[in-house]
Design brief:
Layout lengths: L1 H15 L21 H13 L9 H17 L5 E7 L14 H14 L3 E2 L7 E6 L3 E6 L9 H17 L4 E5 L8 E2 L10 E2 L4 H5 L7 E5 L3 H4 L2 H5 L8 E3 L10 H9 L3
Parallel strand pairs: 1-4, 1-5, 5-8, 8-9
Antiparallel strand pairs: 2-3, 3-4, 6-7
Helix pairs in contact: 1-2
Amino acid sequence: MRVTGVLAAVLLCHANCGIAAPSGSPCDLTERPKGMDLMEYAFAIQEAVEAPKKSANDVRECIALDSLGRKESSRRNEKGSAHLFVQLGYFDDPDTGDRSSIDYQIAENFVRYLSFCGFSQEESSSVSHRTFMKDGIIKVTLGLASREGRFDREFSNSARREFFQTLRNGGVDYLITVGHSRHGRGLDLYPVNLGSKNVIPVYSEQFYKEMPASVKGIALLGCDSKRHLSTQATQARREGQAYKLIDVQGLFYSQDGVKRIFETLDRF
């Protein structure tokens, strides 16, 4: 009887935990510590499953989101929501030529956090972009580049149009882009074999010249984004506009996407 319960707990843990499960969940124990036998490991997992779950108030990812919302409300000295815009690029593997993208997986893990932290999806969400709101304090727009990991030209073209529409008209406070830098050509919404024909030119001078005045922070999470940003691009800001620019020096790994998004919130 005891063994059956333990095995059920192990299965429950693996069934309910994703790549980026919230801190403090039973998934913290899914990798067996060296020297622990299987039965002891199973008992440990059962104990974690049966233990009281952490509330959103105790999870650092939720704290980071709430802090961003409160900071923006305080800065404005008025009631209103901060708007965080996260745009994912087409995350394929340039080395193998695999046309599938993991932007969808990154999005699903990010949305899992949003749900855990008390966000609700807005009905106004489009096919490529989803909007989430919490307590009227912070709004999060999440943009994808692929249709559930598969390339769809119409979907990707629509995603680019939706990106600029949201950026220019959505009252965005903070922008985070996550994806391949394509050697400085920009955030690509197409697979690499199509020659970067549908990029968001996040490294160009013009992109920053046209940046809406509402934007207070930009993070470019992609390989060598620091090197790809030209001096002209970093200086091309509207007169009187001083936003924080966060970039990456060296390689950026897709499996760290969700983690790096939340780390960036603390730097804004």
